[in-house]
Amino acid sequence: MEALSSNSPSMEDFTHWVRTIVVESSEIQTQPISSPEFDINLTFSFQTYDYNWIIRQDSRDYHLHNLTISPITQKLISLNRQQFSNYSETCQILFQLLQYWPVLDSTRRISADFIWRRTNIGHQPNTGVNLHFHLATHNTNVLDEDEEEEVATCGMVPASQSSIESLEKRIIEHGRSCSICMDDLCEGFSMPCLHVFHGHCIKKWLMINHNCPLCRLEMPTTDDNADLYLPTCS
């Protein structure tokens, strides 16, 4: 198992939601090529970890209030080894594949570079490559002890049924994918923030968590103010 991570700040630096990235790769397995067209199989998986910390006023120690871990989303992509013959073209291909993942552009570039290096080191031309690429986003929130009640509401709280039903269906341009399941989008349902997902994906998500999977926009948790979050038509 190999890991690549960004530099993480000390706990004292956390005053709001901060993202650190961990990239993990299983050992590359080689096998005889079964098809002349596809000899590089990349399995992408993604998961988020939400940490809520409390600063104790008496000791200024940090206490982990709760940890929420999202389900793993996964996607398999098969590519021709010839597409990996040029570094710039390889990074461009991988960057496009990762463009709808909920991570920063800099992370996509680092990830593309990481995959290119792992698939081009010491492999014979007559063998295929299977690479499992796992990206985890760690969100850390730190609040004072007197804000603990607010933190307690930051867990897995479902959105209200009326706000889920108010999501609007949209036709999607070619080449986009759902950031929850990573499959292609032909049509989807729009959040008030205009992020679009498969209907069954986002509705299942909102029945567990009232935050947008990408930008963390909060959907109503009661029907009293659901009308404030009606989708905006473009």
UniProtKB/TrEMBL annotation:
It catalyses: S-ubiquitinyl-[E2 ubiquitin-conjugating enzyme]-L-cysteine + [acceptor protein]-L-lysine = [E2 ubiquitin-conjugating enzyme]-L-cysteine + N(6)-ubiquitinyl-[acceptor protein]-L-lysine. Gene3D superfamilies: Zinc/RING finger domain, C3HC4 (zinc finger). It comes from the Eukaryota. Keywords: Metal-binding, Zinc, Zinc-finger. It is an enzyme of class 2 (transferase). Its EC number is 2.3.2.27. GO terms for cellular component: cytoplasm. It holds the Pfam family zf-RING_2. GO terms for biological process: protein ubiquitination. Residues 178-216 form the RING-type domain. GO terms for molecular function: ubiquitin protein ligase activity; zinc ion binding. This is RING-type E3 ubiquitin transferase. It comes from Perilla frutescens var. hirtella (Perilla citriodora).
